[in-house]
Design a protein that fits this description.
By secondary structure, the chain is an alpha+beta fold. It has helices at about 15-30, 80-90, 135-140, 150-160, 170-180, 195-210, 215-225, 255-260, 280-290, 300-310, 320, 345-350, 395-405; strands at about 40-45, 50-60, 65, 70-75, 110-115, 120-125, 245, 250-255, 275, 295, 295-300, 335, 340-345, 360, 370, 375-380. α2 (about 80-90) packs parallel to α6 and α5 crosses α6 (about 195-210). This is CubicO group peptidase, beta-lactamase class C family.
Length: about 400
Amino acid sequence: MANLKVDVDPAEAGFDADRLSRIDAHFDRYVENGRLPGWLAVVSRHGRIVHVGSGGHSDVEAGTPVETDTLWRIFSMTKPITSVAAMMLAEEGLLELDDPISRWLPEFASPRVYVKGSALSPLTEPATTPIRVWHLLTHTAGLTYGFHHGHPVDAIYRSAGFEWGTPPGLDLAACSERWASLPLVFQPGAEWNYSVATDVLGRLVEVVSGLPLDEFFASRIFTPLGMTDTGFVASSVSRLAALYVPSADGLVRNDAFGRLGMSRPDCLSGGGGLVSSAGDYWRFTEMLLRGGALDDVRLLSPRTVSLMASNHLPGHVDLEEYGRPLFAEMPFDGHGFGLGFSVLEDPVKARTLSSAGEFAWGGAASTAFWVDPDEDLTVGFYTQLLPSSTYRLRSQLRQLVYQALVD
C-alpha cells in the first residue's frame, strides 16, 4: 500500500494552508447535505504531498469512515493505465502507433461502418482505412458505448449486451470479437467518440505481450511502482467503498455495481475495471509527471509521456469541434485528447484556472485526477457516486486547488 500523508508544509510548496482548507469545507458540505457518501482529495506539488482531505463514509450504512487506505472503483481512470501499458510495448518495438490492429486482432480485418437506417436494419459500408493503434488510444476508431443513447449503433451495442458492462461469461478476447462484429459509428479517424476503444487496446496488450491483462499490469506496472492496492479485484474487500447513486430521497446504495471489484471479472476491462487506492494512483500520476519514472523505476521515456500528453486531434482542435456531443469524463470546450488522456489546450475557453498542457481523466463513480506539468502538480479525487455527471465536482475542485496556489 502506497503511503499517503502530508510531507511538506504547504507554504514551502507555494500553497496557502487556509485556502487549502476550503477544499475540505466545500466537500464536507456535500456530505452534510446528503449528496456524497464520502470523499478523499490529494494535492501534491514538486513530488511532495501538500494536502490530504477526506470526509464522510466509505460505507454509509455501516458507518465506516473514509480512510487514506480506502479502496475505490476507479472505472475509466483505468484507461490511462492501459494506455501506458500499450506505450510500453511500443517502446519495446513490439507495435507502432500506425499499425493496423488487425495484425494482432484478426477480427478487425474488415470493419464495416454505419451509413443509415435503424438499429434493427442498419445499412453499412466497408471501412476505407484500417483501425490503427493510435485510433484506439485517441477514441477515434469509430467504436462506441451502449450507454450513450445517441446513435443507432449505441442501440446495437445494447442489444448485444454492452451497456454498462459486458455479457456474463465473455472474456476480453470474446468481447473483442463481438465488438469487431458490430458496425462502426464513423470511418476510423474521422471523429472522436468516447468508447470501448481502450478495452480493445487492453486486448491488444494481451496478444502482443502474451500475458493476460491483469498479469501484465501487475508485473510491469503495479509491482514496480509499489501499487499494491491496485487490481481487478480489491486487495481487501473490507476496505472497498460502497457505491451509491442519487435519488430524490438522497443517496441510494447500488450493490449491483457494488459487486464490481469483489471477485475476478469475466472480462478484464482495460477501459474501466480496476480498483485502486488514492495512494497507489498518486504514485501512478507522479510517474507521469516525472516523465515516466518514479524513484528508481522507469516505465516510459520522457519523450513518450510528452507525446501521450499532447493533443492528437487534427489541427489541435478541441473536443467541442471534433467530438460528438455525448457524455465523456471531461468537458469538451478547450480540451483536446492525447494518447489516453484529455489535454487542456485553452484554459480561457475551458473557463478554468488550470494550466495549458494539463492532462487528466476521471471515472464513472466521480473519481478524477489531473497532472499539471507547468505547475509540477498532481491532484486526485475519490468518491463512489454514479454517474460522474451528477455534480460539477471536478471543476469545483480545480477552482479550490488553484485559488490556494499563491506563489
